[in-house]
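anyone seen this seq b4? input:
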Amino acid sequence: MIKVVLDCFGGDHSPDANIDGAVRALSELTDLHLILTGDEAILKEKLTGKDFDASRVTIVHAPDVIDTSMKPTDAIRLQKESSMMKAVKLLRTDEADALVSLGATGALVSAALLRIGRLKNVIRPAFCPILPTMTGGIVGICDTGANVDITPDHIQQYAVMASLYLECVYGIESPRVALLNVGVEEEKGDDLHKNAYQLLKNTPGIRFIGNMESRELLSGDIDLVVADGFSGNVLVKTTEGTALELLKKLKKDIYSKTIYKIGAGLMKKMFMEEKEFMNYQNYGGSVLLGTAKVVVKGHGSSKAVAVYKCIEQAYRMEKTELNGRIEDALTAIANEPWHEAQRKREVMRFRRRIFRRRCAGSQMRD
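predicted toks r here
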Protein backbone atom coordinates (compact mmCIF):
# COMPACT_ATOMS: atom_id res chain seq x y z
CA MET A 1 0.00 0.00 0.00
CA ILE A 2 1.12 3.52 -0.83
CA LYS A 3 0.19 5.79 2.07
CA VAL A 4 -0.56 9.40 1.13
CA VAL A 5 -1.47 11.96 3.79
CA LEU A 6 -3.93 14.59 2.55
CA ASP A 7 -4.19 17.93 4.32
CA CYS A 8 -7.94 18.46 4.04
CA PHE A 9 -8.06 22.15 4.96
CA GLY A 10 -6.42 25.34 3.74
CA GLY A 11 -7.80 25.47 0.19
CA ASP A 12 -10.55 27.76 -1.13
CA HIS A 13 -12.91 24.80 -1.59
CA SER A 14 -11.75 22.71 1.37
CA PRO A 15 -12.74 20.31 2.77
CA ASP A 16 -15.38 19.37 0.14
CA ALA A 17 -12.96 19.38 -2.80
CA ASN A 18 -10.41 17.40 -0.79
CA ILE A 19 -12.96 14.76 0.19
CA ASP A 20 -14.37 14.36 -3.33
CA GLY A 21 -10.86 14.14 -4.81
CA ALA A 22 -9.86 11.61 -2.16
CA VAL A 23 -12.88 9.39 -2.88
CA ARG A 24 -12.09 9.38 -6.61
CA ALA A 25 -8.43 8.55 -5.92
CA LEU A 26 -9.45 5.57 -3.76
CA SER A 27 -11.61 4.22 -6.59
CA GLU A 28 -8.93 4.71 -9.27
CA LEU A 29 -5.82 3.62 -7.34
CA THR A 30 -6.46 0.24 -5.74
CA ASP A 31 -3.29 0.06 -3.61
CA LEU A 32 -3.68 3.55 -2.16
CA HIS A 33 -4.26 4.27 1.52
CA LEU A 34 -5.23 7.83 2.44
CA ILE A 35 -4.65 9.55 5.77
CA LEU A 36 -6.89 12.61 6.11
CA THR A 37 -5.88 15.38 8.50
CA GLY A 38 -8.35 17.98 9.73
CA ASP A 39 -11.31 18.43 12.05
CA GLU A 40 -12.44 14.84 12.61
CA ALA A 41 -16.13 15.64 13.11
CA ILE A 42 -16.30 17.66 9.89
CA LEU A 43 -14.41 15.05 7.88
CA LYS A 44 -16.64 12.22 9.07
CA GLU A 45 -19.71 14.28 8.21
CA LYS A 46 -18.40 15.02 4.71
CA LEU A 47 -17.57 11.34 4.15
CA THR A 48 -21.06 10.20 5.09
CA GLY A 49 -22.85 8.73 2.10
CA LYS A 50 -19.70 8.53 -0.04
CA ASP A 51 -18.88 5.25 -1.77
CA PHE A 52 -15.36 4.23 -0.71
CA ASP A 53 -13.44 1.49 1.10
CA ALA A 54 -13.34 2.70 4.71
CA SER A 55 -10.51 0.27 5.55
CA ARG A 56 -8.21 2.32 3.28
CA VAL A 57 -8.91 5.63 5.01
CA THR A 58 -7.54 6.94 8.31
CA ILE A 59 -8.59 10.23 9.90
CA VAL A 60 -6.17 12.15 12.11
CA HIS A 61 -7.80 14.91 14.14
CA ALA A 62 -6.31 18.38 13.58
CA PRO A 63 -8.59 21.21 14.75
CA ASP A 64 -6.56 24.18 13.48
CA VAL A 65 -5.95 25.65 10.01
CA ILE A 66 -2.92 27.75 9.03
CA ASP A 67 -3.88 31.19 7.75
CA THR A 68 -2.13 32.20 4.54
CA SER A 69 -1.18 35.56 6.08
CA MET A 70 0.80 33.92 8.87
CA LYS A 71 4.59 33.91 8.66
CA PRO A 72 5.91 30.43 7.79
CA THR A 73 8.12 30.22 10.88
CA ASP A 74 5.22 31.24 13.14
CA ALA A 75 2.98 28.68 11.48
CA ILE A 76 5.49 25.88 12.15
CA ARG A 77 6.10 26.99 15.72
CA LEU A 78 2.60 27.92 16.82
CA GLN A 79 0.22 25.83 14.70
CA LYS A 80 1.31 22.31 15.66
CA GLU A 81 -2.31 21.17 15.81
CA SER A 82 -3.10 22.39 12.30
CA SER A 83 -4.02 19.98 9.52
CA MET A 84 -0.82 20.83 7.62
CA MET A 85 1.59 20.40 10.54
CA LYS A 86 -0.08 17.13 11.55
CA ALA A 87 0.37 15.91 7.97
CA VAL A 88 4.04 16.92 7.97
CA LYS A 89 4.57 15.11 11.27
CA LEU A 90 3.06 11.91 9.84
CA LEU A 91 5.43 12.18 6.90
CA ARG A 92 8.45 12.78 9.14
CA THR A 93 7.67 9.78 11.37
CA ASP A 94 7.25 7.49 8.33
CA GLU A 95 3.56 6.93 8.99
CA ALA A 96 2.95 8.24 5.47
CA ASP A 97 4.93 7.98 2.23
CA ALA A 98 3.82 11.22 0.58
CA LEU A 99 1.97 14.45 1.37
CA VAL A 100 -0.57 16.55 -0.55
CA SER A 101 -1.66 19.99 0.62
CA LEU A 102 -3.55 22.97 -0.81
CA GLY A 103 -2.57 25.22 2.12
CA ALA A 104 -0.14 28.10 2.54
CA THR A 105 2.85 27.62 0.25
CA GLY A 106 5.39 29.31 2.51
CA ALA A 107 4.43 27.24 5.53
CA LEU A 108 4.50 24.00 3.52
CA VAL A 109 7.91 24.67 1.99
CA SER A 110 9.42 25.75 5.30
CA ALA A 111 7.97 22.73 7.10
CA ALA A 112 9.21 20.38 4.38
CA LEU A 113 12.74 21.77 4.60
CA LEU A 114 12.93 22.04 8.40
CA ARG A 115 10.97 18.93 9.38
CA ILE A 116 11.47 16.56 6.42
CA GLY A 117 14.83 17.67 5.02
CA ARG A 118 16.49 17.17 1.64
CA LEU A 119 17.64 14.19 -0.35
CA LYS A 120 21.35 13.42 -0.37
CA ASN A 121 23.36 15.88 -2.53
CA VAL A 122 20.34 18.13 -3.18
CA ILE A 123 21.31 21.79 -2.74
CA ARG A 124 17.77 23.16 -2.60
CA PRO A 125 14.41 21.58 -3.48
CA ALA A 126 12.48 23.19 -6.34
CA PHE A 127 8.90 23.45 -7.55
CA CYS A 128 7.95 21.81 -10.84
CA PRO A 129 4.39 22.45 -12.13
CA ILE A 130 3.00 21.09 -15.42
CA LEU A 131 1.31 22.99 -18.25
CA PRO A 132 -0.37 21.71 -21.46
CA THR A 133 1.24 22.30 -24.86
CA MET A 134 -0.29 23.07 -28.25
CA THR A 135 0.53 19.57 -29.48
CA GLY A 136 -1.54 17.92 -26.74
CA GLY A 137 1.43 17.05 -24.54
CA ILE A 138 2.79 18.64 -21.37
CA VAL A 139 5.76 20.77 -20.37
CA GLY A 140 7.35 21.00 -16.92
CA ILE A 141 8.88 24.18 -15.49
CA CYS A 142 11.51 23.93 -12.75
CA ASP A 143 11.93 26.10 -10.63
CA THR A 144 8.86 28.35 -10.24
CA GLY A 145 9.48 30.16 -6.98
CA ALA A 146 11.25 28.07 -4.37
CA ASN A 147 14.68 29.64 -5.03
CA VAL A 148 15.47 33.08 -6.43
CA ASP A 149 19.23 33.49 -5.85
CA ILE A 150 20.86 30.45 -7.40
CA THR A 151 24.02 29.14 -9.08
CA PRO A 152 24.43 26.99 -12.23
CA ASP A 153 24.64 23.94 -9.94
CA HIS A 154 21.05 24.56 -8.87
CA ILE A 155 19.89 24.65 -12.48
CA GLN A 156 21.80 21.46 -13.24
CA GLN A 157 20.04 19.69 -10.37
CA TYR A 158 16.66 21.01 -11.51
CA ALA A 159 17.29 19.47 -14.93
CA VAL A 160 18.25 16.10 -13.47
CA MET A 161 15.43 15.92 -10.90
CA ALA A 162 12.67 17.17 -13.19
CA SER A 163 13.78 14.94 -16.08
CA LEU A 164 13.44 11.90 -13.85
CA TYR A 165 10.08 13.20 -12.61
CA LEU A 166 8.71 13.45 -16.16
CA GLU A 167 10.03 9.99 -17.00
CA CYS A 168 8.63 8.30 -13.87
CA VAL A 169 5.27 10.03 -13.51
CA TYR A 170 4.35 10.89 -17.12
CA GLY A 171 6.29 8.27 -19.07
CA ILE A 172 8.25 10.79 -21.17
CA GLU A 173 11.44 9.05 -22.26
CA SER A 174 14.55 11.25 -22.37
CA PRO A 175 12.73 14.59 -21.91
CA ARG A 176 13.97 17.51 -23.99
CA VAL A 177 15.46 20.05 -21.57
CA ALA A 178 15.82 23.76 -22.38
CA LEU A 179 17.27 26.65 -20.38
CA LEU A 180 15.04 29.73 -20.13
CA ASN A 181 17.04 32.68 -21.50
CA VAL A 182 16.75 35.96 -23.40
CA GLY A 183 17.81 34.31 -26.67
CA VAL A 184 18.50 30.90 -28.15
CA GLU A 185 22.19 31.46 -28.95
CA GLU A 186 24.72 29.75 -26.70
CA GLU A 187 26.45 32.99 -25.73
CA LYS A 188 23.22 34.75 -24.66
CA GLY A 189 22.44 35.84 -21.10
CA ASP A 190 24.36 36.82 -17.99
CA ASP A 191 27.14 34.83 -16.33
CA LEU A 192 24.64 32.61 -14.52
CA HIS A 193 22.98 31.48 -17.72
CA LYS A 194 26.19 31.19 -19.73
CA ASN A 195 27.77 28.98 -17.08
CA ALA A 196 24.55 27.01 -16.62
CA TYR A 197 24.44 26.37 -20.36
CA GLN A 198 27.93 24.84 -20.33
CA LEU A 199 27.14 22.78 -17.26
CA LEU A 200 23.92 21.39 -18.73
CA LYS A 201 25.65 20.64 -22.02
CA ASN A 202 28.12 18.39 -20.19
CA THR A 203 25.69 16.76 -17.75
CA PRO A 204 25.21 13.02 -18.36
CA GLY A 205 21.71 11.57 -18.22
CA ILE A 206 19.78 14.60 -19.53
CA ARG A 207 18.81 15.58 -23.08
CA PHE A 208 19.77 19.25 -23.21
CA ILE A 209 18.63 21.02 -26.38
CA GLY A 210 19.89 24.54 -25.59
CA ASN A 211 18.34 27.89 -24.70
CA MET A 212 14.69 28.78 -25.22
CA GLU A 213 12.69 32.01 -25.18
CA SER A 214 9.49 32.31 -23.16
CA ARG A 215 7.29 32.37 -26.28
CA GLU A 216 8.30 28.75 -26.99
CA LEU A 217 6.92 27.41 -23.71
CA LEU A 218 3.71 25.88 -25.08
CA SER A 219 5.02 24.99 -28.54
CA GLY A 220 5.37 21.28 -27.78
CA ASP A 221 9.03 21.31 -28.83
CA ILE A 222 10.23 21.25 -25.22
CA ASP A 223 9.41 18.83 -22.39
CA LEU A 224 11.17 20.63 -19.54
CA VAL A 225 12.21 24.24 -18.93
CA VAL A 226 14.79 24.97 -16.22
CA ALA A 227 15.08 28.45 -14.72
CA ASP A 228 15.76 30.40 -11.56
CA GLY A 229 12.71 30.65 -9.30
CA PHE A 230 12.02 34.30 -10.10
CA SER A 231 12.03 33.90 -13.89
CA GLY A 232 10.17 30.58 -13.75
CA ASN A 233 7.44 32.03 -11.57
CA VAL A 234 6.95 35.01 -13.88
CA LEU A 235 6.91 32.69 -16.91
CA VAL A 236 4.18 30.42 -15.53
CA LYS A 237 1.95 33.18 -14.18
CA THR A 238 2.25 35.27 -17.33
CA THR A 239 1.33 32.26 -19.48
CA GLU A 240 -1.63 31.31 -17.28
CA GLY A 241 -2.83 34.92 -17.10
CA THR A 242 -2.60 35.40 -20.86
CA ALA A 243 -4.62 32.25 -21.50
CA LEU A 244 -7.34 33.31 -19.05
CA GLU A 245 -7.61 36.83 -20.48
CA LEU A 246 -7.83 35.51 -24.03
CA LEU A 247 -10.70 33.25 -23.01
CA LYS A 248 -12.49 36.22 -21.40
CA LYS A 249 -12.03 38.33 -24.53
CA LEU A 250 -13.24 35.51 -26.75
CA LYS A 251 -16.38 35.14 -24.64
CA LYS A 252 -16.99 38.90 -24.67
CA ASP A 253 -16.58 39.09 -28.47
CA ILE A 254 -18.92 36.13 -29.05
CA TYR A 255 -21.73 37.91 -27.19
CA SER A 256 -21.12 41.22 -28.99
CA LYS A 257 -22.96 40.27 -32.22
CA THR A 258 -25.83 37.93 -33.10
CA ILE A 259 -23.92 36.35 -36.00
CA TYR A 260 -21.07 35.51 -33.64
CA LYS A 261 -23.51 33.88 -31.21
CA ILE A 262 -24.89 31.69 -33.98
CA GLY A 263 -21.41 30.65 -35.04
CA ALA A 264 -20.42 29.96 -31.44
CA GLY A 265 -23.50 27.78 -31.02
CA LEU A 266 -22.33 25.62 -33.91
CA MET A 267 -18.83 25.42 -32.44
CA LYS A 268 -19.89 24.95 -28.81
CA LYS A 269 -18.37 21.48 -28.50
CA MET A 270 -15.02 22.70 -29.80
CA PHE A 271 -15.02 25.68 -27.41
CA MET A 272 -15.77 23.39 -24.47
CA GLU A 273 -12.93 21.08 -25.45
CA GLU A 274 -10.50 24.00 -25.69
CA LYS A 275 -11.63 25.33 -22.32
CA GLU A 276 -11.10 21.92 -20.73
CA PHE A 277 -7.69 21.62 -22.40
CA MET A 278 -6.56 24.92 -20.86
CA ASN A 279 -8.03 24.22 -17.42
CA TYR A 280 -5.13 23.96 -14.95
CA GLN A 281 -7.32 21.84 -12.66
CA ASN A 282 -6.64 18.88 -14.97
CA TYR A 283 -2.88 18.99 -14.45
CA GLY A 284 -2.56 18.54 -10.70
CA GLY A 285 -0.24 20.49 -8.46
CA SER A 286 3.34 21.67 -8.26
CA VAL A 287 5.61 18.95 -6.90
CA LEU A 288 8.48 19.91 -4.59
CA LEU A 289 11.43 17.99 -6.00
CA GLY A 290 14.43 17.26 -3.78
CA THR A 291 12.79 16.76 -0.38
CA ALA A 292 13.46 13.55 1.52
CA LYS A 293 9.78 12.60 1.17
CA VAL A 294 7.30 13.24 -1.64
CA VAL A 295 5.50 16.59 -1.28
CA VAL A 296 2.86 17.95 -3.70
CA LYS A 297 1.47 21.48 -3.38
CA GLY A 298 -1.93 21.94 -4.97
CA HIS A 299 -3.30 25.33 -6.05
CA GLY A 300 -5.33 27.03 -3.34
CA SER A 301 -8.36 27.19 -5.64
CA SER A 302 -8.17 23.48 -6.53
CA LYS A 303 -11.43 21.63 -6.95
CA ALA A 304 -12.04 17.88 -6.69
CA VAL A 305 -10.43 16.94 -10.01
CA ALA A 306 -7.26 18.88 -9.17
CA VAL A 307 -7.06 17.24 -5.73
CA TYR A 308 -7.37 13.83 -7.37
CA LYS A 309 -4.58 14.72 -9.82
CA CYS A 310 -2.36 15.86 -6.93
CA ILE A 311 -2.92 12.57 -5.11
CA GLU A 312 -2.18 10.68 -8.31
CA GLN A 313 1.07 12.62 -8.76
CA ALA A 314 2.18 11.81 -5.21
CA TYR A 315 1.17 8.17 -5.64
CA ARG A 316 3.12 7.72 -8.88
CA MET A 317 6.20 9.48 -7.51
CA GLU A 318 6.29 7.05 -4.60
CA LYS A 319 5.28 4.03 -6.70
CA THR A 320 8.14 4.56 -9.16
CA GLU A 321 10.64 5.27 -6.33
CA LEU A 322 11.45 8.67 -7.84
CA ASN A 323 13.39 9.94 -4.83
CA GLY A 324 15.75 6.97 -4.90
CA ARG A 325 16.44 7.56 -8.60
CA ILE A 326 17.12 11.24 -7.96
CA GLU A 327 19.59 10.40 -5.21
CA ASP A 328 21.44 7.93 -7.44
CA ALA A 329 21.62 10.39 -10.34
CA LEU A 330 22.87 13.29 -8.21
CA THR A 331 25.41 11.08 -6.46
CA ALA A 332 26.81 10.02 -9.84
CA ILE A 333 27.13 13.65 -10.93
CA ALA A 334 28.71 14.72 -7.63
CA ASN A 335 31.40 12.07 -8.10
CA GLU A 336 32.45 13.45 -11.49
CA PRO A 337 35.87 15.22 -11.20
CA TRP A 338 34.81 18.05 -13.51
CA HIS A 339 31.75 18.68 -11.38
CA GLU A 340 33.70 19.22 -8.18
CA ALA A 341 35.98 21.78 -9.83
CA GLN A 342 32.97 23.53 -11.38
CA ARG A 343 31.15 23.51 -8.07
CA LYS A 344 34.03 25.20 -6.26
CA ARG A 345 34.25 27.90 -8.92
CA GLU A 346 30.53 28.61 -8.76
CA VAL A 347 30.50 28.73 -4.96
CA MET A 348 33.26 31.34 -5.04
CA ARG A 349 31.39 33.38 -7.68
CA PHE A 350 28.20 33.19 -5.62
CA ARG A 351 30.01 34.33 -2.44
CA ARG A 352 31.63 37.24 -4.27
CA ARG A 353 28.26 38.31 -5.67
CA ILE A 354 26.65 38.28 -2.20
CA PHE A 355 29.65 40.16 -0.77
CA ARG A 356 29.34 42.89 -3.42
CA ARG A 357 25.63 43.28 -2.72
CA ARG A 358 26.26 43.64 1.01
CA CYS A 359 28.98 46.21 0.38
CA ALA A 360 26.70 48.18 -1.93
CA GLY A 361 23.94 48.10 0.69
CA SER A 362 26.33 49.29 3.39
CA GLN A 363 27.50 52.22 1.24
CA MET A 364 23.90 53.26 0.57
CA ARG A 365 23.13 53.30 4.32
CA ASP A 366 26.22 55.40 4.97
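The longest helix spans residues 337-365. The radius of gyration is 22 Å. kinda curious what u guys think
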